[in-house]
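Project channel, design review

CF: Before we commit to the Mesobaculum littorinae constructs, I'd like one complete example in the thread so the newer folks can see what an input/output pair looks like. Taking Transport permease protein.
RD: sounds good, go ahead.
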Amino acid sequence: MIRRFRTGRTILALMLREMSTRYGRSPGGYLWAVLEPIGGILILAVGFSLLLRSPPLGNNFVLFYATGFVPFTLYQNISDAVARALNFSRPLLQYPVVTWADAVIARFVLNALTGILVGYIVLFGVLMLAETRAVLDMDDILTAFGLALLLGLSIGMLNCVLLGLIDAWGQIWSIVTRPLFLASGVLFLFEDLPSGAQNILWYNPLFHILGLLRAGFYPTYDASYVSEIYVVGFSLVTLFMGTVLLRRYHRAILTR
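CF: and here is what came back for Transport permease protein:
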């Protein structure tokens, strides 16, 4: 019981430290966490509205791109934050009371709460301010957010090990994932792709998450390709690998 209480206090302290470091030193603080995705969505919506008569789904460009941009950004921010958890808390990890798991959990929880809040503000702000004719399916919406959190945690855990052991991994990962924004369905639907591209991109778990979230906002959209079991299985395998490797190599990473 005492150990659990001490772990909880440590995680909370790490979260407060990151909040003050990341948001407390810049003008606007948390406001930028909301303005950044809103700006990206508006730029996409305005740009494509000049090129297309109607969005690929529904009648509102802002909602269509918001339902792709929000879960993608949620996954990306959590993955990046967890991947750098050991480096971010390296000075504090020299104390016996602070463990690598505390550092990972603190960054995950803080960024998850921030991402969920931002997603809620953006998506429901669009619903309130625009004529979207959306009919919400909260089961699909909450499941999509949960899968994005799980996937971000799992990829972040594995990358945390690889970044600590391989000096060039950050550059390699950046190059490999640079097309991910386009290859995850933020700008288009899975059904609009040729069959050859569908056969390849189906294995991208983000495509399933984005499709599931859009199904939660568009009642006429049947995302039949979505497999929640595949996303969960992919995430759990990756999470298991990252956890085992971190437990084995965290000391070596901290002493590099």
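RD: helpful, thanks. Residues 95 and 183 are 42 Å apart (CA to CA).
CF: The chain has ten helices and no strands.
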